[in-house]
Specification:
Order of helices and strands: HHHHHHHHHEHHHEEEHEHHHH
Radius of gyration: 31 Å
Number of strands: 5
Largest sheet: 5 strands, mixed
Strand content: 5-15%
Length: 373
């Protein structure tokens, strides 16, 4: 005998979520030996409406739930929950079928690497798993379909300001950008202030002599208070990006680094290069400055300007003029760095870049490190 409790979470009755509430109704009709016509008479519905209700072709409304409670038993909550579970399951099945048609879209992204970062659930990339992976990737980007992804992220390419020709994989770059967005979206803070940003940069410059475990949190705090989010996201294949500067909205900027290179001279130059874009090019609110300033070849005015600004804030021109005659010894480099107030690894990187020092010399003065977001 079928028993329906007056609570929605009855232990005696646990319906199959895949089936419509009509299956439960049919079971109860069979128990009572009623016809659909008899049920319709008791509910005050037409036989056609009852038949459609049983087949799940019409929704079970609050009014129908009350009538079913009075006629067949169970609580209103039970019937409404039964309907909600069925509609949810039906929607998921429909979504899975649509996702199966979207599987080719997956091939554009570095899926395995995104799984390694726990952005996507780890799984075998087979025919069975790919439709659900489509749904996960859509949720990651916060879009409903590949068409919306194209509108939101694919067309972002028009805003890219590239420093390298290799930065052409829009899908991979968009995934890396989205990783930063997701972190920044959780960081509520004040609006961007140019004055506060300049003050923050001056203090951050003094932090270059400190190890990451000491400077990282202070650096994030200073930037946060000036309206600039700072995030560190591991590099993804095919992006060729060490950093990006962009505006998430008119009042919040983002500096995102990948630690590509992992030595402190490259890290600090990359950071101040991106900071230059925020400070000097703030009128270009829609631009996305994709940078690998450690590589040569970009002739855009913005990149040249950002390179020069980062170079000069780290080692002012008056001090940099001494580098050509600086003895190529550890002691001389360390003394010079101390006089300028920066880490000696930055001096080594600058001298190597300017071809004043062989790229194999004094690299032990550089510091390799990782930063955890």
């Amino acid at each position: 005998m079928i028993s329906i409790s007056n609570t929605a979470d009855s232990a005696e009755f646990a319906p199959d979520w895949v089936s419509p509430p009509g299956d439960t109704i049919l079971d109860l009709l069979e128990e009572r030996d009623w016809t659909q016509q008899q049920l319709a008479d008791r509910l005050g519905f037409s036989p056609k409406h009852v038949n459609q209700l049983i087949k799940g072709k019409v929704s079970l409304t609050e009014d129908a739930a009350i009538r079913l409670r009075n006629v067949l038993g169970g609580s209103v909550g039970f019937w409404l929950t039964r309907e909600a579970q069925y509609r949810e399951r039906a929607a998921l099945i429909d979504a899975a079928q649509r996702n199966a048609d979207m599987v080719p879209w997956l091939e554009r992204f570095p899926l395995k690497e995104m799984m390694d970062l726990d952005v996507l659930s780890k799984r075998r990339l087979d025919k069975k798993s790919k439709p659900s992976l489509v749904g996960e990737l859509l949720a990651f980007f916060g879009v409903a379909s590949p068409e919306q992804w194209e509108n939101q992220y694919g067309k972002m390419e028009l805003a890219f300001r590239r420093s390298r020709e290799e930065q052409a994989d829009v899908a991979a770059i968009s995934a890396w950008l989205r990783l930063g967005e997701r972190v920044a979206e959780r960081l509520e803070g004040p609006r961007y202030s140019e004055d506060n940003f300049k003050k923050a940069l001056n203090e951050i410059l003094s932090l270059t002599t400190q190890p990451p475990q000491q400077f990282h949190q202070r650096m994030k705090t200073l930037l946060h208070e000036s309206g600039v989010a700072f995030v560190v996201v591991p590099a993804l294949p095919r992006t060729h990006v060490s950093g990006v500067a962009r505006w998430l909205n008119p009042h919040k900027a983002l500096i995102q680094l990948s630690l590509y290179g992992k030595t402190n001279d490259k890290f600090w130059f990359s950071f101040f290069h991106e900071a230059a874009h925020i400070l000097l090019h703030s009128k270009q609110k829609t631009a996305v400055f994709l940078d690998d300033p450690n590589k040569e070849g970009s002739n855009s005015p913005e990149e040249v300007e950002a390179n020069a600004w980062a170079r000069d804030i780290l080692i002012p021109p008056t001090a940099a003029s001494q580098l050509a005659t600086l003895p190529k010894t550890r002691a001389a480099v360390e003394q010079f760095a101390s006089s300028v107030g920066i880490h000696p690894g930055i001096v080594v990187g600058r001298m190597q870049h300017d071809k004043l020092l062989d790229v194999s010399w004094l690299n032990d003065l550089k510091i390799s490190f990782q930063l955890a977001q």
